[in-house]
Amino acid sequence: MNGETRPSKTDALAPETEASLGRIHRHTYAVILVAALAGSFISGARMAAGVLLGGALSIFNERWLRASTGAILGKAAATGRVPSWIASKFILRYAVIMIAAGAALWTGYFHVLGIGIGLASYVAAVMIEAGYQGYLTFRSGEGKEE
Predict the structure, then answer these.
(1) What share of residues in the chain are helix, strand, coil (percent, to 5)?
(2) String of b and e for 51-61 (b: at least 16 CB within 10 Å)?
(3) Quick check: 83 and 75 in contact, CB under 8 A?
(4) DSSP for 113-139?
(5) Where exactly are the structural domains of the chain?
(6) Given CB 3.0 to 4.6 Å as the disulfide criterion, which of 9, 27, 49, 55 pairs with 32?
(7) CA nearest to 114, candidates 72, 55, 70
(8) 114 near 55, Cβ under 8 Å?
């Protein structure tokens, strides 16, 4: 072994977890699409563009967060400490998102509320998945008596 602790393809998550993550990603795209369509009908093209940009930033944020967390936990497990350059990826991620959103607002082509709604798309997707998991839990508990 080369000291690297990244999970390999054989270290797969439980099938239920993989399925849940796949649904969350699909829900994220669906939330972005529905919000962009609704925004374009309600407030126009600037709102739709804001939602699409915010959604893209949300997806970028989630993937970068997953990679940074994996790197930090992998390095901490292997060496017992985390180099500051790896931990600084968290701060850099926020800076990149703020610069992108600020530059977009500066152009005047994007609505600030739309960007916020798009950034919240991953949160909405997780809430949809939580509702689905709650439904599955209650459905499997029907008919059982204690």
Answers:
(1) 80, 0, 20
(2) bbbbbebbbeb
(3) yes
(4) HHHHHHHTHHHHHHHHHHHHHHHHHHH
(5) 16-138
(6) 55
(7) 55
(8) no
CA angle, 65 as apex, 47 and 37 as ends, to 5°?
A: 20
Name the region of 124 (left: φ>0; alpha: ψ -120 to 50; beta: rest). alpha
Name the pTM for this structure.
Answer: 0.79
Percent of the chain with pLDDT over 70: 88
* Long-range contacts (CB closer than 8 Å, 24 or more residues apart) made by 99-102: 100/53, 100/57, 101/53, 101/54, 101/57
pLDDT category at 144 given cuts 50, 70, 90 is low
CB atoms within 10 A of CB 80: 7
- H/E stretch holding 96 reads helix 84-107
Quote the CA–CA distance of 26 and 36 in Å, as a whole number: 15
Whether the per-residue pLDDT at 128 is higher than 70: the answer is yes
